[in-house]
């Protein structure tokens, strides 16, 4: 936000007056919109106590919201670990000196990045059953985790690659000069420095991953969204209040993760441990840009 | 070995598949346009001298960016349309199309706003100072000097967002509106989940996203502001 203050002068008396009027007008407009929304909800009876009362009850939290949250966190945590491994393997694969490793790794990463995650989840769920003559049944949990792993793993592979490429060449040259082999240079010199540089991008990708567990809804994996927008409203008929409460839970978790990413980025900017600056999440295929992408998926 | 090599379902359902992808294209273009407009308004709010507008913009972006798109779309479709009965068209399919489009736009706008804000940060302070020096007001300097440069420097990230949006339209499946992903889901039900069907649809999405990527990459290079 360095330029925003440059967009306008330090206000004089007239500008201050104008700003105050603008503040007042915009506050009135925003309150007006808020009033229309609240009024609309109230007219449809959405503020009736019995719609909100379930969220004050311990058993609703104990039997529905907390188990849903746990299922979400389980899927997210397992996919995060698997995606990191996948990303590490294919990210390093793309940097290999051998074309027979580098080229297929590139195909795998580009393929899983280019197709929608939901197609992948459907395929993982349906293909084994068809191919096995309907004897194998893939649980929804596995389909979500495998889909998230392949997609986010491919994105992380690009982050790993960018992180390692961000370490100045002199570092690996120095490593070779003191007699290290390729593996040693990677393990002892490049990876530790790259990790610092790519930590913020990895954490941001975790926010994307956690949000994407909500796709479990589509294949009936019982996670937070499923409890929040299917099961609780089925019992209490309170879809709108439930959606509001559930989204607050998601927002709270993701804001914490986002805060961690910002802290890590500040730290790696300050860090003297590596000359590699923080790397951004990769752009889509064919799009090369200087400004970072913003992690939408 | 039907699951591996039988491409005939793709040929049989070719018409339905095209209809699905046409719906994907329509959803993408309409939401892309609406989110660009909304995102621009949001970024103007976020850099404005009015604290109330800045706060409102920040809250909007943080809420939408941290909510799963599935939830946003479900809230639009199950919540606003089905529960609260705010219908946008008497035709059920058109109604879901518009709600899905609004949900996608509301979600994407938050990311457009963040991209544009990053773009505004790349405009040198001297540009804004010069704009002020010749007497332009905040709105004028934003509209005539800062935003045009910001837009040109974020063309590549906007391209990435458009590609992500194309892929995100698959989630419209929760709205029961027929697009490519729901056609594939239906074909999996009818023919079983076979590799050729999956490859066919994956190819379809690549046909949409790869040219978008290269077009925006080319545009970004062409329109780059030389500094």
UniProtKB/TrEMBL annotation, chain A:
The keyword Cell membrane applies. It comes from the Bacteria. One of its GO terms (molecular function) is transmembrane transporter activity. Pfam families: BPD_transp_1 (PF00528). It is a multi-pass membrane protein. The chain crosses the membrane at residues 21-42, 65-90, 111-128, 140-167, 188-208, 239-262. GO terms for biological process: amino acid transport. Its main location: membrane. It is found in: Cell membrane. Belongs to the binding-protein-dependent transport system permease family. This is Glutamate transport system permease protein. It comes from Sphaerisporangium rubeum.
Automatic annotation (TrEMBL), chain B:
Residues 21-216 form the ABC transmembrane type-1 domain. Keywords: Amino-acid transport, Cell membrane, Membrane, Transmembrane, Transmembrane helix, Transport. The chain crosses the membrane at residues 20-45, 66-84, 96-113, 154-178, 198-220. It holds the Pfam family BPD_transp_1. It is found in: Cell membrane. One of its GO terms (cellular component) is ATP-binding cassette (ABC) transporter complex. It comes from the Bacteria. It is a multi-pass membrane protein. One of its GO terms (biological process) is amino acid transport. GO terms for molecular function: transmembrane transporter activity. Belongs to the binding-protein-dependent transport system permease family. HisMQ subfamily. This is Glutamate transport system permease protein. It comes from Sphaerisporangium rubeum.
């Amino acid at each position: 936000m360095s330029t925003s203050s440059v967009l306008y002068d330090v206000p004089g008396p007239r500008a201050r007056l104008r700003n105050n009027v603008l503040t007042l007008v915009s506050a009135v407009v925003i309150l007006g919109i808020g009033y229309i929304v609240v009024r609309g909800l109230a007219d449809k009876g959405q503020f009736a106590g019995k719609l909100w009362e379930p969220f004050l009850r311990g058993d609703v939290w104990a039997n529905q919201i907390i188990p849903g949250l746990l299922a979400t966190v389980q899927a997210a945590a397992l996919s995060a670990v698997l995606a990191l491994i996948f990303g590490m393997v294919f990210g390093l694969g793309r940097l290999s000196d051998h074309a027979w490793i580098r080229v297929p790794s590139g195909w795998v990463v580009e393929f899983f990045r280019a197709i929608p995650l939901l197609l992948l989840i459907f395929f993982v769920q349906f293909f084994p059953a068809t191919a096995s003559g309907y004897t194998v049944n893939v649980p929804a949990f596995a389909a979500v985790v495998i889909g998230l792993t392949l997609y986010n793993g491919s994105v992380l592979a690009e982050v790993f690659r960018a992180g390692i490429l961000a370490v100045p060449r002199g570092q690996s040259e120095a490593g070779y000069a003191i007699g290290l082999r390729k593996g040693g240079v990677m393990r002892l010199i490049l990876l530790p420095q790259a990790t610092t540089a790519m930590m913020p991008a990895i954490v941001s990708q975790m926010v994307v991953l956690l949000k994407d567990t909500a796709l479990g809804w589509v294949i009936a994996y019982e996670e937070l969204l499923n409890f929040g927008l299917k099961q609780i409203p089925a019992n209490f008929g309170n879809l709108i209040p439930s959606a509001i409460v559930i989204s607050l839970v998601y927002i709270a978790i993701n804001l914490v993760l986002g805060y961690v990413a910002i802290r890590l980025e500040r730290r790696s900017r300050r860090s003297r441990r590596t000359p590699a600056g923080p790397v951004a999440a990769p752009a889509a295929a064919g799009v090369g840009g200087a400004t970072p992408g913003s992690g939408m998926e | 070995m039907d699951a591996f090599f039988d491409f005939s379902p793709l040929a049989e359902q070719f018409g339905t598949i095209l209809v699905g992808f046409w719906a994907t294209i329509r959803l993408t273009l309409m939401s892309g346009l609406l989110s660009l407009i909304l995102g621009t308004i949001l970024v103007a709010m976020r850099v404005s001298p009015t604290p109330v507008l800045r706060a409102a913009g920040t809250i909007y972006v943080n809420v939408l960016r941290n909510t799963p798109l599935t939830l946003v779309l479900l809230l639009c479709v199950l919540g606003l349309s089905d529960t609260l009965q705010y219908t946008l068209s008497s035709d059920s399919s058109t109604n879901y199309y518009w709600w899905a489009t609004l949900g996608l736009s509301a979600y994407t706008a938050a990311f457009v706003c963040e991209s544009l804000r990053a773009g505004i940060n790349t405009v040198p302070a001297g540009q804004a100072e010069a704009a002020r020096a010749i007497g332009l007001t905040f709105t004028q300097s934003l509209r005539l000097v800062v935003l045009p440069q910001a837009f040109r420097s974020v063309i590549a990230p906007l391209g990435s967002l458009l590609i992500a949006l194309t892929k995100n339209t698959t989630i419209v499946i929760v709205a029961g509106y027929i697009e490519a992903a729901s056609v594939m889901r239906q074909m999996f039900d009818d023919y079983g989940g076979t590799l050729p069907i999956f490859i066919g649809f994956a190819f379809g999405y690549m046909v949409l996203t790869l040219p978008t990527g290269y077009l925006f990459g080319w545009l970004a290079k062409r329109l780059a502001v030389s500094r």
